[in-house]
Amino acid sequence: MGQDETPEGRKAEAETPALEQEAGPSTGGGQSRRDFLRSALIGAGGAGLGLASGGLLARYLAPEEMPAETESFPRMRVARLDEFVENQPLEFRYPLEHPHDDAFAIRLGKPAFGGVGPDGDIVAFNGTCTHMGCPLRGSYKADHKILGPCPCHFSTFDLSRRGIVVLGQATEALPQVILEVEGGVVYATGVSRLIYGFRNNLRDAPPVGR
Amino acid sequence: MAAGTTSYVSRERVPLPPPTAKVSTIVCEYCPVGCGYKVYTWPVGTEGGRRAHENALGVDYPTEMLSGKWVSPTMYNQVSIGGRQHHIVILPDGDAQAVNLGGTHSVRGGTIAQKVYNPATPTADRLTTPMLRVGGSLLPIAWDLATDLVAELSQYVIQTYGELAWGMKRYSYQFFENTYAITKLAYGKVGSPNHAPHHAPAMGSDTPGLSDAGMDPFPAAFEDFKEADVVMVSGSDPYETKTVLFTTWIAVGGAKIVYVDPRKTFTARYAETRGGLHLQIHPGTDTALYNAIARVIIENGWEDQGFIAAHTASRAELDQETKWRRRLMGMTFNELRAYLTGDPRFTPEGAEAITGVPAAEIRQAAELIARPVDGQRPKVVFAFEKGLYWTHNHENTASYANLAILTGSTGEVGRALTRFGGHQRGNADAAPYPLDKSPHEYQGNKIEMDTDRWTVEGNTRLMWVIGTNWVGAMAGSQFLKDRLRELVLSGPQVTSLDRAAILQTLKSRIDLGGMVLVFQDIYLNDTSEFADIVLPAATWGEEDFTRANLERRLRLYQKFMDPPGEARPDWKIVAEVAQKMGYVGFDWPDANAIFEESAAVMVGKRMDYKALVDEAQARGTRAHAFLGSFGTTGVQLPVRRENGALGETPRLHADKRFKTASGKANFVKGDWDTVEARNLIYAPQGDELWVLNGRVNVYWNNLFDFKRRPYTFQRFPMNFLEINQADATQRGIESGDLVSVTNRAVRNHLGGASMGYFTAVAYVTDQVPPGATFAYFHFPGSHANSVVPADTTLQPLNLRYSFKLGKGRVARLGTSQLKDTMSFVPRNVV
């Protein structure tokens, strides 16, 4: 990991925070660092993902040495209520500046545990599989409001039931991002349950927005 | 607006083990795959840091994707070691060189840290002291009195009523050391055939068709699943229940899957979306399907003629067989061909009418498993489990084995016929089962006795139940419970703590035709409701043990913590009772001594580990310690000594020798007429539905651990009944409703009709077809077994129940409390 601690590595982290602040459909023009990583992951595919994560990716994904950077969850703007389109995920990073902290908010069109908004159907979750850390992005099934199956070991999560595993091997439900609505805007205010790879949701990487 | 939920609140941070943490190796307790785990223990008050050199895992945190080093909250717990509070992390072995490569795991094993005894968790009700039922309640007593009672009552029963009145119902798998001690007493000293494993009413092969064929049911290496072109699966969903075998070996290998199951499970959909097939069979019709596939193979000349000519028995060789059932049911290739081609029911169209599987799919299945491509025969692994052999035990296993023999699928990389198994293998018979004393026979041939039938007939005077939920398991049935109530609870009951008075009361019950029940386990369960004496057992992680997985991989399961209270390992309890009964040879100092002694009886068997013990002795080390040096990799049995090292056996039958008198494989008759007659008894009538049963991803066996594991228990807080939308609509049932399942005429152990019933939460799903429902097979207090036939005289070739073929009327009782909280979305989305 020595190489990951070079000033260059830290610089790569520092240059992109603004991109991570505002969530939105990933249809923008420029390719963010996160998008780059995502396409690299998808290219690696399924069970082969581990190989990629050890080499090239590790250089970019290396966390900062920040043991206790924050004591409480940041309050972060996600999107206006009227920006939500049913079954369309809005992606954002939360609570830390780390690839495992890929989160998404979604209006399910059906009341959900922890749901906000006029119909109680807007929820947000971390999108990293709690089995072994593979990305669940793109696996949302609108018919049943489920996320999965994970490309690695096929875990599926029920987004209307606090992210519990429908079928699969994850040893923790999908971490749910706690949402609040104020003045027609949805804010992320915390995370319930431990995110894959972490020992503590608020340690070992810088918080978003720094 | 938001739905409520019965929430499990998890930890949101975990302490990492420091570099000073003690590391033990162990294997998951549950499914037969047997993933390797590492156990980290360290005193409370310290924890490791995020840098690799600051923690015992040797990785930086946050860990990377697929690191195999992430400690999820359910992998963490606290335990008492040496009387001092310790942190404990039980982590799938991220450095594993076998089985669960890269530290992958199922949800069952992944959460196994929640198994360990911690009185602050739902494990608080572990049995910690012997107990005696006095005045209807279980009261703590001393070990010495408890083993005195068991020993003296055992001697009394054996002397007064003979050894057949002394029975044992015990696990077959819970470590070689324990099963050796148990069978040394039961077979070697008492000599009673009144003895049955946890899963069946009688000892003997569970897969008689394979036994008659001479095919070992556990010959394969996991590598074979990866190297196969096709994996055929019958009667088991390997993703749900043999998870890592599926994810790490079958899925990664990319074999096409031919999946046979009445249910459209995850693996069924996985198969049909990746070039394979789901043969959605009517329940109980497997034999007709495999006979038809075999016929297509033979009619196209796709059989492996070289293998058949060289390695299958002739009529003369079959006539020389030493086992009666092989003489009766064995067939040559020509005899099989004549049987299959002479019966129009075994044409694809004929079989379609019986099985519901389209004729075209029967032909496709035959092609996939047998048609040579560019002169190369496809490499096929034929795997199966209880959906096959717990429906029509002999006929199904025979007809399935025939497919493997026809295609020469044995003893080579990527070619095998194998059970998946339900648990790991840990049985060491210290002496032979006393078959000659069995009261049960078929056409004058002795057959292992049906202990359940023998008991409900009132012939058992003392039953010692070790590590199983007898009345809740398999065909325990309402009838068995009713009879135990009469035999155990209605006779004289202990009302004193005076030793002589206790013995007098229990002996008087025995003399009046009643029964005494000794219950030995780690928790109370449905069976302990009938217990007179309760003996608390120590278990996994609380004693050094050994066991093998389904590819015969033997490993040491290291002790890492103290047993709760006064709990003792089963071998020690049995040894103390045996010594009090006056038997010698039970004075082992520790589990290692039993393991070393047991090696002698394993010689020449599938699980032969004698060479390992000999090699350890040559090196001046204990056998347990020597095995421990192989870590989570272990050794693949049987082993032999080769130049100061151990030679292992990746797969059996590599020499093309089979377990028959001739050493050749036998084709075996898969007798459809017998099955058809039996199905007339089993099939639903009128508005009844099939009530099938089986395992589910998040649970293992009778939930002794899993109902005490809040994380997994939130998935199905009560038994569920999968029911098709059409059947649900007809009955006014929606997902989340509480339903009753009732069978007013369960075929009981004596051939009579009994009541059977259970309740469950309805799960409306296309996973089951119209006409069939499915429940968890072994849910505490909600016994799917209560609606299944328990009459083993219907399967006289091998005394087994048709456990998977229950039936009953399904009715809505009302709305369950789970309607708005449990997840009822499809479980078969791929």
Describe the structure.
The complex is a heterodimer of chains A (210) and B (830). Chain A has 210 residues and is an alpha+beta fold. Chain A contains five helices and ten strands. Chain A has helices at residues 7-14, 17-21, 33-44, 49-54, 56-61; strands spanning 76-80, 90-93, 102-107, 122-126, 140-141, 146-147, 156-158, 164-167, 176-182, 185-192. Chain A starts with 6 loop residues before the first helix and ends in an 18-residue tail after the last strand. The model of chain A is unreliable at 1-68 (pLDDT under 50). In chain B, β7 (166-170), α3 (176-190) and β8 (195-197) form a beta-alpha-beta unit. In chain B, the strands form eight sheets. In chain B, strands 5, 6, 7, 8, 17, 18, 19 and 22 form an eight-stranded mixed β-sheet that branches. Chain B is built from 27 helices and 32 strands. Chain B is α/β, with parallel strands linked by helices and 830 residues long. Chains A and B meet through α4, α5 and β8 of A and α7 of B.
Secondary structure layout plus pairing:
The complex is a heterodimer of chains A (210) and B (830).
Chain A: H1 7-14, H2 17-21, H3 33-44, H4 49-54, H5 56-61, E1 76-80, E2 90-93, E3 102-107, E4 122-126, E5 140-141, E6 146-147, E7 156-158, E8 164-167, E9 176-182, E10 185-192
Antiparallel strand pairs in A: 1-10, 2-3, 3-4, 4-9, 5-6, 6-7, 7-8, 9-10
Chain B: E1 22-27, E2 36-43, E3 76-81, E4 84-92, H1 107-110, E5 131-134, E6 137-140, H2 143-161, E7 166-170, H3 176-190, E8 195-197, H4 208-213, H5 222-227, E9 230-234, H6 238-241, H7 243-253, E10 256-260, H8 266-272, E11 277-279, H9 286-299, H10 305-311, H11 315-319, H12 324-329, E12 330-331, H13 333-341, H14 348-355, H15 359-370, E13 380-384, H16 386-389, H17 393-406, E14 416-419, E15 441-442, E16 445-446, H18 451-456, E17 462-466, H19 477-489, H20 499-511, E18 516-521, E19 533-538, E20 545-548, E21 553-557, E22 568-569, H21 570-580, H22 591-598, H23 610-618, H24 623-628, E23 635-636, E24 640-642, E25 645-647, E26 667-668, H25 672-682, E27 689-694, H26 710-713, E28 720-723, H27 725-730, E29 737-747, E30 753-764, E31 772-776, E32 806-815
Parallel strand pairs in B: 7-8, 7-17, 9-10, 9-13, 10-11, 13-14, 17-18, 18-19, 19-22, 27-31, 28-30
Antiparallel strand pairs in B: 1-2, 2-4, 3-4, 5-6, 5-19, 12-26, 15-16, 20-21, 21-23, 24-25, 27-32, 28-31, 29-30, 29-32
Helix pairs in contact in B: 2-20, 2-21, 3-21, 3-22, 9-14, 9-15, 9-17, 14-15
